């Protein structure tokens, strides 16, 4: 009994949010605090530099666009993410320049000046994998007289590209059914290119599903992870190659989620179980914190809202 009580107290303490409304500010937000924990020193070299380059390539592969046009003869790069990933794109802006614009639902990064564009291209060169994006990068590299490099044929567990790719197309959610009161942690990679998901499946397993759009007839694929062992393996991967998007807040709670499940299954008091779960979900959703932080950013960026 006392051992169980101590576990409950420990989990309640861990799941209690560390930042309240009064403490929230754009410069001291929980989002920024957590992001800084997983952001490398961009001025350093060695393996950290390689990991950054691969992560950025994965992000561009998933939700970026690299274009040549009459207006931008040397190229133009755009990355679009949900609003909550504002700090992630600001980090990229700090390294390469460019601009970040925010709306109430999304954040867009754009880079068009030649010096920053060339630096970014050199960093991602040889790490891009999505066929459409490979063609774009090759065309822009050729225009900027940069020697084109090819990526490794196979992905491996030791590649930060996966983390960047997940930041763009991945999801991490808890599905709940009211009728049976079941809870299921699910991690998903969504992509039109099945070959990339097959590479990920060879590394992390998971189940591959095909979704067909009846109107267009086009296919879209999804790699799902629901098994505890597979999800914990992904959690271990992210410890070495951290997510830099808002999703990393939930990734940090994966192990705690499974501890919570074990504890709740051993408790007979339904009210205590409900209290534990509600406290955990406050941490999982960050609803109160994110609402305040969103308002502060929109006020600060009022001149650049889309």
Written description of the protein model:
There is one protein chain. The protein has 306 residues and is an alpha+beta fold. It is built from 13 helices and 8 strands. It has helices at 2-15, 30-37, 46-63, 86-96, 114-124, 131-143, 161-169, 194-204, 228-240, 248-251, 254-266, 270-285, 287-300; strands at residues 64-67, 76-82, 99-102, 106-111, 170-177, 182-191, 207-212, 219-225. Strands 1-2-4-3 form a 4-stranded antiparallel beta sheet. The protein has a 4-stranded antiparallel beta sheet with strand order 5-6-8-7. β3 and β4 form a beta hairpin. α1 (2-15) runs antiparallel to α11 and α3 runs parallel beside α7 (161-169). The longest helix is centred in the first third of the chain and has 18 residues, at 46-63. The radius of gyration is 21 Å and the shape is elongated. The model is unreliable at 17-40 and 287-306 (pLDDT under 50).
Termini Cα gap: 56 Å
What is the string of SSEs from the N terminus onward?
A: HHHEEHEEHHHEEHEEHHHHH
Instruction: Summarize model confidence as the mean pLDDT.
Output: 82
How would you describe the shape? elongated
Radius of gyration: 21 Å
**SS content category:** alpha+beta
Strand order of the largest sheet: 1-2-4-3
Specify the number of helices: 13
Helix content: 40-55%
Q: Which consecutive residue ranges, at least 5 long each, have pLDDT under 50? A: 17-40, 287-306
Major beta sheet, specifics? 4 strands, antiparallel
Q: What's the oligomerization state?
A: single chain
């Amino acid at each position: 009994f006392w051992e169980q009580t101590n576990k409950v107290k420990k989990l309640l303490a861990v799941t209690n949010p560390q930042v309240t409304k009064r403490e929230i500010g754009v410069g001291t937000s929980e989002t920024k605090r957590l992001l800084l924990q997983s952001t490398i020193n961009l001025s350093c070299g060695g393996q950290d530099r390689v990991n950054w380059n691969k992560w950025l390539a994965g992000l561009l592969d998933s939700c970026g666009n690299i274009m040549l046009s009459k207006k931008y003869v040397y190229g133009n790069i755009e990355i679009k993410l949900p609003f909550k990933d504002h700090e992630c794109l600001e980090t990229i802006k700090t390294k390469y320049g460019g601009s970040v614009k925010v709306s109430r639902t999304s954040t867009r990064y754009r880079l068009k000046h030649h010096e920053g564009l060339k630096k970014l291209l050199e960093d991602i060169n040889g790490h891009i994998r999505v066929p459409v994006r490979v063609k774009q990068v090759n065309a822009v590299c050729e225009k900027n007289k940069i020697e084109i490099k090819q990526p490794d044929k196979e992905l491996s567990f030791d590649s930060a590209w996966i983390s960047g790719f997940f930041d763009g197309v991945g999801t991490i959610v808890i599905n709940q059914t009211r009728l049976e009161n079941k809870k299921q942690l699910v991690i998903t990679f969504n992509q039109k290119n099945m070959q990339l998901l097959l590479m990920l499946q060879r590394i992390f397993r998971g189940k591959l599903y095909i979704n067909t759009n009846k109107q267009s007839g086009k296919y879209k694929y999804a790699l799902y992870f629901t098994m505890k062992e597979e999800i914990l393996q992904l959690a271990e991967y992210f410890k070495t190659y951290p997510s830099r998007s808002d999703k990393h807040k939930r990734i940090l709670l994966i192990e705690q989620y499974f501890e919570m499940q074990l504890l709740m299954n051993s408790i007979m008091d339904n009210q205590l179980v409900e209290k534990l779960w509600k406290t955990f979900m406050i941490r999982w959703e960050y609803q109160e914190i994110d609402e305040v932080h969103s308002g502060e950013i929109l006020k600060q960026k009022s001149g650049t809202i889309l």
